[in-house]
C-alpha cells in the first residue's frame, strides 16, 4: 500500500512539475530539459545484464538461476547426479557419433554452423564451469576403448567436474540445487564486450572511443594486461602457459578453439566499425568521440 501511495504522490508531483515548466518555458529551460533528457536518471542497460527490462531489472542478469522447463530430477531429489545406472556418455557418444572421417553433411552444412552455434550459445549461457570446491565424478570407459584404453587394462574413466551452483540451494527436497548462468542471457554482445565494466575497461584505449588495437591497428589485442581468460593447462606440455599469449575478447572461453576465436574477431571489428560510424554521425568530428563509451546493444 505504501508503495502505491508513493507512486500516486510521485505521479502528482510529476504532473505539477511538468505543468510548472511548460508554463513559462524559456530558451534556457528548454536547454535544461534537453540536458535532463540526455542525462536521465533512468538506469541504463548494464554489461551485467541489469536494466534491460525496466519492469524486471534483474531479468537476464549474470548469476541468475538457469530457467527450468521441467522439474529437477536429482537421484536424491536434492543434488545428487541422476542417471548413474544409465549408459555412460562415452558409450552413447561411441554408439551415436562414431563414423568414418571425411563424410560430408547430408544437408551440405559446414563446420561453420557448429561454431556459429557455439558463439550464440556462449553469448547467452555459461553454466557448465565447475564450482568451488570442485566436485569430481567419473565417466566410465568401456574396456578396450580405442582412445582411452587401447591396452585393454580396464577400470579407466574420464574425470567430470559438476557445474557450479547457487550455494543457497541444494539443501533439501524443497530447495533442490539450482545452477547459475554466469553471463547475461541477453544477446547483448557479452561474448565480445564482456559482462563487467572492469573487463571492458581493460580492452579500451580511452582515446577516441576506440578499443585497444595492436601496432598495425588490428583487433583484438593480446592479453598482456592478464584479464582472467580461461587458460587451461595444455595437454602436450602438461602445464599452464602464459596468459599473455591469448587474444583478449569479452568471453573467458573465447580462446578455446581457433574457430570460436575467429568468430569473435569479425564481430569485434564489426562492432567497432559500426560504433565509429555512429560516433561520426552523432558528433561529426572524431576528436569529440567519447573516451569511455562503447556500443550498447
Ligand atoms: C548438397 O550438394 C550436392 C552437390 O552440390 C547436391 O547434389 C545436393 O542436392 C545438395 N543437398 C542438399 C540437401 O542441398
Ligand atoms: C584519435 O584521433 C586522433 C585524431 O583523429 C588521432 O590522431 C589519434 O591517433 C587517434 N588515437 C587513436 C588511439 O586511435
TrEMBL record:
GO annotation, biological process: response to oxidative stress
GO molecular-function terms, A-Z: heme binding; peroxidase activity
Highest rank taxon of the organism: Eukaryota
Official protein name in the record: Uncharacterized protein
Gene3D superfamilies per UniProt: Haem peroxidase domain superfamily, animal type (1.10.640.10)
Organism: Laodelphax striatellus (Small brown planthopper)
Key word Transit peptide present: no
Keywords annotated in UniProt: Oxidoreductase, Peroxidase, Signal
InterPro entries to which the protein is assigned, alphabetical: Haem_peroxidase_animal, Haem_peroxidase_sf, Haem_peroxidase_sf_animal
Amino acid at each position: 500500500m505504501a508503495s502505491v501511495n508513493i507512486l500516486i504522490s510521485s505521479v502528482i508531483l510529476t504532473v505539477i512539475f511538468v505543468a510548472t515548466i511548460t508554463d513559462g518555458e524559456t530558451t534556457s529551460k528548454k536547454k535544461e530539459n534537453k540536458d535532463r533528457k540526455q542525462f536521465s536518471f533512468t538506469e541504463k542497460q548494464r554489461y551485467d545484464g541489469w536494466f534491460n527490462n525496466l519492469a524486471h531489472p534483474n531479468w537476464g542478469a549474470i548469476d541468475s538461476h538457469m530457467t527450468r522447463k521441467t522439474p529437477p530430477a536429482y537421484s536424491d531429489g536434492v543434488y545428487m547426479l541422476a542417471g548413474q545406472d544409465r549408459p555412460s556418455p562415452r558409450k552413447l557418444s561411441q554408439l551415436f557419433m562414431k563414423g568414418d572421417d571425411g563424410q560430408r553433411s547430408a544437408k551440405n552444412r559446414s563446420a561453420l554452423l557448429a561454431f556459429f552455434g557455439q558463439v550464440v550459445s556462449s553469448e547467452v549461457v555459461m553454466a557448465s564451469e565447475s564450482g568451488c570446491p570442485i566436485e569430481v565424478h567419473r565417466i566410465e570407459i568401456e574396456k578396450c576403448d580405442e582412445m582411452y584404453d587401447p591396452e585393454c587394462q580396464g577400470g579407466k574413466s574420464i574425470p567430470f567436474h559438476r557445474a557450479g551452483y547457487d550455494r543457497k540451494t541444494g539443501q533439501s527436497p524443497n530447495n533442490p540445487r539450482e545452477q547459475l548462468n554466469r553471463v547475461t542471457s541477453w544477446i547483448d554482445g557479452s561474448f565480445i564486450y564482456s559482462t563487467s565494466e572492469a573487463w571492458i575497461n581493460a580492452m579500451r584505449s580511452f582515446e577516441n572511443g576506440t578499443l585497444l588495437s595492436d601496432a598495425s591497428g588490428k583487433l583484438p589485442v593480446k592479453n598482456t594486461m592478464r584479464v582472467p581468460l580461461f587458460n587451461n593447462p595444455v595437454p602436450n606440455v602438461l602445464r599452464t602457459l602464459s596468459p599473455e599469449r591469448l587474444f583478449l575478447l569479452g568471453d573467458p572461453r573465447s580462446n578455446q578453439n581457433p574457430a570460436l576465436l575467429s568468430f569473435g574477431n569479425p564481430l569485434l571489428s564489426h562492432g567497432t566499425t559500426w560504433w565509429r560510424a555512429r560516433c561520426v554521425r552523432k558528433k561529426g568530428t572524431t576528436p569529440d568521440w567519447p573516451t569511455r563509451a562503447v556500443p550498447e546493444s
